[in-house]
Amino acid sequence: MGKFICVAAMILVGSVAVLTASGCGKKSLQSGGEAQSAQQGAMAKGGAGGGGSNGAQSGVGSNFPDTSLQAGGGSGEGLRGLDKNPSEERLGGGTLMAKADSAGSASRQLDDMRAEQAASSAAGLRDVYFGYDSWTISEEGRQALVRDADWLKANPSAAIKIEGHCDERGTTAYNLVLGEKRAKSVRNYLVELGVSANRLSVVSYGKERPFCAEHAESCYQQNRRGHLAVKAGK
Amino acid sequence: MTQTTFIGAILGGLLVLAGAVGILDSGAADVFLEATRPDFQKISLGVVGIQNTGGPDWLGGRIEEVLKKDVKRSLVFDLVDLPSLGIKVREVSNGATAIFKQAADNGVSLLVWGKASLKETGKEADATMEGFVYDSSSDEVVGGKRYAGSPSVLRLMAHRFADELVFRYTGEPGIARTKITYVAEQGSARELYVMDYDGYDPRQLTADGFLNLMPRWSPDRRFIVFTAYRNRNSQDIDVIELATGKRWTYVSYAGLNITPAFSPDGIFLAFASSYEGNSELYRLDTRTKSVQRLTVNPSGDLSPSWSPTGRELAFTSDRGGGPQIFLMSSDGTNVRRLTFEGDYNAAPAWSPRGNWIAYVCRTPRKEYKLCVMSPDGQKRMQLTTGPGVDDSPSWSPDGRHLVFSSTADGKSHIYMINADGKDLERLTFEGTHNSAPAWSPAS
Fold first, then answer.
1. What is the pLDDT of residues A183-192, one digit of tens each?
2. Complex ipTM, two decimals?
3. What is the pTM of this model?
4. For labelling, which of A224, B265, B283, B414 has a CA lying 20 to 30 Å from the CA of A44?
5. CA B443/CA B172 separation, integer angstroms
């Protein structure tokens, strides 16, 4: 069945076949193996905030807390039972909840987002819209991507982030996978149109950053998209 | 209520505890004996009242309301309305034999009463609560509790007393002091929050300004693990220590890094990542930092949920076309498909008692609702109906309730429902979007 999907995807994406097929072929080979425990033994140096490195061996943090159940030990929250002559139990304010360190400061995020939006609307890039449950690029989508590819060729220093988005139906988790499939369909088609893959990054936002918030098909349509954004700065 | 039923209930509780610590090995089925058998008889309990012994007018009534709701939600007790039985609700002291006899004559097993005070002395404010229990089967005041603390722990006092009642009669720790972590919209960002199990006292945990998703508890309740979009372009799986706010990154592979879940012993972290091409399941050993790949498949595998023994994982996979629930051993072997009904089943959550797997099922009318299925695939129930997208089911530690998100009332909010589909209760009312709830373990 999985193979069928893979083949179907190749047909649907059309002449991207070369790229997709190599991916599928690799996976099929892997799935043939019995002992599938691909021990990664990854001891990355990157640590917190390492970001997306392409090396399969990096990407594991350098320092973890002890989360094992034994380590928790006596938190002092345990029940002590009813007592005929109860003595006073003094209750603390429960779990102290510090607001966690801001990984990337919120204001920097906002500044980056604004810069990205400005650059993207100046470029006039077109988005690609998808059907329900689908990551197949329509004829209309292909036409949009031809124009986007032209812009990319005319602006050889620009790098593009392709965001995969989904409508609100379905689960948060599965929509992240679906969003990534959509973003990768868009990337693959742009590559087929001659855009260098290393100018294109993909990210899935699933159903978490909708363009439109109504519970209606007109809105769902807006949210099932591959959105092209010009990367601002680094 | 007879003595034997009581003993039965206590025995049931002991068996549950015994199962949880592995004294009774339930074998491959991963099913524990439970006190929630269909023939489990709830214990009738009447709350006489919480007397106000100094403090604002609302004090006694507020505590009483919290306590009554806890008692009702425990599903261990049947909360009886004393006035409707002709039992006058007024002050009770430990020697109020008249009301004890009335209760016994009306078949009320337990009577509960107490006092509360709130005193302002200079800058310091001090609150107290005490509660006592009369048991008509032994015709005695079996005991009580006295609590003191700042006014901010008044609700906690009632919750703790309710949990003591559950503990006394089932041997289980109760759920009234548990918490729920979830995602809430904050401006254009989605941040992590933690609230009490009844929806009160929400507290913001992150302030990153973009997206934080799908939080889960460590089994000791001290940590929350989640997906963070570190710089809008890539995802990490991070963990936060609640007491200190300290934060670590587990993985930051290129591609998706989603749906983390701690093993029941807190040592392993199962998660999905797409860094090798498509979304696959991995298992990180937090002691050695080694990562083991669990699935090898050209389709999407995600959303691992551990069985209570840690021996198995339920997960979502679209290897058959649409997403379906699969099971496998936690080393990646022995994969088998669990769901066959419908073309979309996702987001599995294995019950802490082992006997059910809750998940999101798409109905023939294309509605996304909650379903449960037994791990052997023999029993299936749809728990919710009607409009709205239901998502992210998570079990209470006693296995009697589920928390989930739904757009049934328009915006996405958090709801609680019993494991049999009864007593739907909305928990959040503020904000533009609340989602991805996860129920904490008990303590």
1. 999 999 999 9
2. 0.89
3. 0.86
4. B265
5. 10
